[in-house]
Write a structure and sequence with these properties.
The protein has 165 residues and is of the alpha+beta class. The chain has a single domain, classed as Nucleotidyltransferase, domain 5 (2-Layer Sandwich). It is built from five helices and four strands. The chain has a two-stranded antiparallel sheet. The chain has a two-stranded parallel ribbon with strand order 3-4. The relative contact order is 0.15. Pfam families: DDE_3. GO terms for molecular function: nucleic acid binding. This is Transposase.
């Protein structure tokens, strides 16, 4: 499953459920999400997974933002040369569509990960299914129900560590 969290409304947006989570799957998911409002500014908060820094994602963002410069060649030169150069391009604040990469081992900073925990606790932990189609439909139904009845922004309550003297 790939999904987005609308931090302002507290809703799951544009869920994608499939057998894999490949570079192509993620790029297609982002493309479907952007089509919700093709003129909007999109900021995606993602972890350090290689599919979040892919060649296909760079090409999608360049095309969607009307960026016509030479992107180079993967593994050879230019923006496409390395994961670092692709991440720099994808996180460029001047782009209408951009990605913010959270540090490794900080999944709690990515609010969709917090919501996935809700999904596990409230649905998946107690579920019995007979097929992948059935579980996919139950997840989509849960998302619809959650968005209609429980959607609200997360309230962060962490106040820091106490001094240990």
């Amino acid at each position: 499953m790939i999904a987005n969290w609308d931090v302002a409304r507290g809703k799951v947006v544009s869920p994608s459920i499939g057998p894999t989570r490949t570079e192509q799957d993620f790029s297609e998911h982002i493309q479907r999400t952007i089509k919700i409002d093709e003129k909007a500014e999109w900021i995606f908060i993602v972890d350090q997974l290689n599919t979040h820094k892919s060649e296909s994602l760079v090409k999608l963002v360049a095309e969607s933002c009307g960026i016509t410069i030479d992107l180079g060649r993967k593994g050879k030169e230019g923006i496409l040369q390395s994961m670092d150069s692709r991440a720099d391009f994808l996180s460029d604040e001047s782009h209408r569509i951009r990605f913010v990469y959270i540090p490794k081992h900080t999944s709690w900073l990515n609010q969709i990960e917090c919501w996935f925990s809700i999904l596990v606790r409230r649905l998946l932990k107690r579920i019995t299914v007979r097929s992948t189609e059935e579980i996919s439909q139950k997840i989509l139904n849960f998302i619809d129900y959650f968005n209609q009845h429980f959607a609200k922004p997360f309230v962060w309550k962490f106040k820091g560590f106490k001094d240990h003297k």
